[in-house]
Write a structure and sequence with these properties.
With 304 residues, the chain is an alpha+beta fold. It has two domains: 156 residues, Fructose-1,6-Bisphosphatase, subunit A, domain 1 (Fructose-1,6-Bisphosphatase, Chain A, domain 1), CATH 3.30.540; 121 residues, 3-Layer(aba) Sandwich (D-Maltodextrin-Binding Protein, domain 2), CATH 3.40.190. It is built from eight helices and 14 strands. Helix 6 packs parallel to helix 7. The longest helix has 23 residues. The protein starts with 12 loop residues before the first helix and ends in a 6-residue tail after the last helix.
Amino acid sequence: MPKTPKLPKGVDLDNLLGLLRGLSWGAADILMAYARGLQPPHGFPNELNVEDSGDGPVSAADLSVNRWLLDGLEAGFPLAGWKLLSEETAKDQFIEDSTLDSEWLWILDPLDGTKDFLAGTGEYAVHLALVHNQRPVLGVVVIPELDELWFGVLGIDAWCEDRNSKKKSFFFSTRSDLNDLILVASRNHRDKRLEQLIDQLCIRDSKTVGSVGCKVASILRGETDFYISLSGKTAPKDWDMAAPEVLIRAAGGEFTHANGRPMLYNTGDLRQEGCLIASHGLNHDLLCRKTSQTMKLIDPGFLV
């Protein structure tokens, strides 16, 4: 029997999932309207202005979905006592080396894969993760262009729905030998070290995909087997990884640092530095060991 997930007092899982469905598809509608040059719903502006935040492009689409999610979570459970941290609000909320004082924290990425969104690849997603004491317990990834809404609840399951709440079947691949694995890697965040690592792992193949949520979904569908993130000049942030981690782990896979350390959030440093590996779980420990050993040769000073 699956166990009941720990949630804030007064929050019922079914009611929460219902709220998240509405917010997720509403976010998808906003993003697809911007992507197609149409008037976004819910009264948001129709011009897709783009600015450089210093960490990457921020568009009107990012900001509109951000407002939609924050308002919806605040109104849906006003007494839940959780706090909300978003990529678009972090600069106003977050003081370096300090954690947000809350047992329960939503970590949101209104538009993961902004570069892909602006380039028209369709490989963008929305991430929502509920974190309890630095560990995520519930994650949502919506991929608008594929009509996919992914849920992960630790201790329960992971599943995918369409707009009619009909569940879509998905399966991890059964590939387990390292030389038979298929890597899903970043299109926009890769460097010479990652190319060297891919070559030396002697894997079967690699594919490039945009958003982290889209990468993890490709593992869940069995199209690929694992994902590696190597911090380059910039490291991914909490909102990039929290929701995808829950999906992989709730489905029975693994998402850790290459040295086996668990992922932690709201630690006082929003960066998820080092070598991070998500996989379907078959030979995850061996994959981590080989990656760690290889990185010592490629970049001896790199902390995995």
